[in-house]
Design brief:
Elements (H helix, E strand, L loop, with lengths): L1 H10 L2 H11 L7 H11 L6 H8 L7 H13 L3 H21 L4 H7 L1 H13 L3 H14 L4 H15 L4 H9 L20 H17 L3 H14 L5 H12 L3 H14 L4 H14 L3 H9 L8 H14 L2 H17 L7 H14 L3 H15 L2 H11 L4 H8 L13 H6 L13 H10 L62 H4 L3 H24 L3 H9 L1
Helix pairs in contact: 1-2, 2-3, 3-5, 5-6, 6-8, 8-9, 8-10, 9-10, 10-11, 10-12, 11-12, 12-13, 12-14, 13-14, 14-15, 15-16, 16-17, 17-18, 18-19, 19-20, 20-21, 21-22, 22-23
Length: 545
């Protein structure tokens, strides 16, 4: 029977596994309560763990395994702070127990890796993403964890990181797949993972592929998930997500509707997804029909308002009115402490007025006045009936309490004014308002202190700034244009031409030797000038000298 229960546990048949464990409780098998607690948590019966321990007179701190499983049950019940304290206790007990067994430090860390991963997960749930990210990163980099804990750490790291780096997240998930497999398939050594955990990893992989626009790979994984997890709705939701990404919203709506009819017990999430897809695709009637089929939330105020808005957008005013009437009838017969009947009736009356159904709206307001005695409902009743029957409206108007300060008001003079200002504590007549307006003095402008730059001392401001600092340089009084060098040789003619005077051609031979020596000196000076290449300003200064 013990072997049979473990086989059921690996197959994911937790209810059958729990039944076998409960039959074995009288046999006094060691660590039976540890496995029973794990089966209850994975079977969605975490609330029964505490009762089981009290019935068997067992404390959660009797072993670190039982403390860990009890902490998991607290997580399922959203008691995260208590779960964190129990996980810390489990880690302390585990370290003491394993050290007494003379295990090495690395072996102890591997044995307690599930507790470390679960602590990081609790930090993630408590809104401490930085601490959780550091814990996941440390577990992944050190690689001192069993295969199941390592896989959970990688998946939670990818989930926490989100879509900030899709390529890096896909590479991290690639470490979990079978090496020889063509597509994405989890390694064979991960049998300890529950079906729900394996399904979550595949779902995250598909979502990342959709963000990376790798539609073929996402489509291949979704095709295999339907057979692997036949009892789950997650493959159907992922198939709808792929179709939406391919701009096939109509096909996605059709598939979700078919599976909702096939699995009515799990239809809620399918119908909600169908309503979301239809509303985003511009199919308001399909979205409204999907919400109507969810009995748990069908008559909640938010759901009613959404359905009415969708039917209004689709032009189905009669259908929207029938939804409001159905909600009023349901809340009238509901035996609840927090009734929403007055809210529904108030909104229904406003809806009917908006669509020209004054008689129905007046009937609703009359019911509100009789049942709740609401002043707002009475005012709405007067304004609604006045459109149909003025005499009847005046009769209802007499039930309103008179407002103080309205007897001395002259209606004719009030119509001639632009309106009175609202006065707190007392109501003023028109004449008093006019007098108050005359007495009002013009508001004085508040002088603000000048704001000085950082480090500026108003007592010692220094020299005043140049008043011409905003003008262009050539428009300032201090501007002096640059002087041109008049001694520069004027070259005329085409480029490269050499111009010589006529009298140089007929020069005597006696003067040629002296002129050649001078030209050599000039050439040497030009070569030196070319080698040094001074700046324009320095050369200009030399020329002035």
């Amino acid at each position: 029977m013990l072997l049979e229960s473990q086989i059921f546990f690996r197959m994911g048949k937790m209810d059958t596994c729990v039944d076998v464990y409960q039959k074995l409780q009288k046999s006094k098998i060691d660590s039976l309560e540890i496995n029973l607690a794990a089966a209850l948590v994975l079977g969605g019966r975490a609330s029964e763990v505490q009762g089981m321990m009290e019935a068997n007179r067992i404390k959660a701190s009797s072993s670190f395994e039982l403390a860990y499983n009890t902490a998991c049950s607290l997580i399922e019940r959203n008691k995260y702070n208590e779960a964190e304290q129990l996980l810390l206790t489990a880690r302390r007990i585990g370290q003491e127990t394993l050290m007494d067994e003379n295990l090495a430090e690395d072996d102890i860390e591997i044995e307690l890796a599930p507790i470390s991963v679960q602590l990081a997960y609790v930090n993630q749930l408590l809104g401490r993403p930085q601490e959780a990210m550091e814990a996941y990163t440390d577990i992944i980099n050190r690689n001192l964890a069993d295969e199941s804990s390592f896989v959970v750490a990688v998946n939670n790291f990818v989930s926490l990181k989100g879509t900030r780096d899709v390529s890096d997240n896909l590479r991290k998930l690639d470490r979990l797949k079978e090496k020889d497999a063509q597509g994405f398939q989890l390694a064979h050594g991960l049998e300890k993972l529950s079906p729900k955990q394996r399904e979550t990893i595949y779902a995250n992989r598909v979502l990342l592929l959709l963000h990376a626009n790798k539609m073929d790979q996402a489509r291949d994984i979704v095709a295999t998930l339907a057979d692997t997890f036949a009892d789950s709705v997650v493959p159907v939701l992922l198939q709808a997500a792929v179709l939406v990404r391919e701009n096939k919203a109509g096909r996605a709506e059709e598939i979700l509707g078919q599976f909702a009819e096939k699995f009515p017990a799990k239809s809620k999430i399918l119908l909600l997804a169908r309503a979301q897809i239809a509303a985003a695709a511009g199919h308001p009637q399909v979205a409204a029909d999907s919400l109507v089929k969810i009995p748990d939330i069908q008559h909640m105020p938010a759901t009613v308002a959404t359905i009415v808005a969708l039917k209004e957008r689709a032009g189905d005013i009669d259908g929207a009115s029938s939804i409001l009437d159905s909600a009023i009838k349901w809340w009238s017969n509901a035996m609840t402490e927090h009734s929403k009947l007055d809210v529904i009736m108030q909104e229904a009356a406003s809806f009917k007025i908006r669509h020209g159904r004054e008689e129905d709206a007046a009937h609703l307001y009359e019911q509100l006045v009789k049942s709740h005695g609401s002043i707002e409902a009475l005012a709405g009743l007067v304004s609604t009936v006045a459109r149909v029957n003025v005499d009847k409206a005046e009769g209802y108007e007499k039930q309103l309490k008179p407002l103080p300060g309205l007897k001395g008001i002259d209606v004719d003079s009030l119509e001639k004014t632009s309106g009175a200002k609202h006065g707190e504590g007392s109501h003023l007549s028109v004449a008093e308002v006019q007098e108050e307006a005359k007495k009002e003095k013009p508001k004085k402008k508040r002088k603000r202190k000048p704001r000085f730059p950082k480090g500026f001392d108003p007592a010692n401001p220094g020299p005043p700034p140049d008043p011409e600092r905003w003008l262009p340089k050539r428009e300032r009084s201090s501007y002096r244009p640059k002087r041109k060098d008049k001694r520069a040789a004027q070259v005329r003619g085409s480029q490269g031409a050499v111009v010589r005077e006529k009298h140089e051609a007929g020069a005597s031979a006696t003067n040629s030797s002296s002129s050649n020596s001078k030209s050599n000196q000039a050439a040497n000076s030009n070569a030196a000038a070319e080698q040094s290449k001074p700046s324009f300003k320095s050369s200009r200064k030399k020329s002035r000298k």
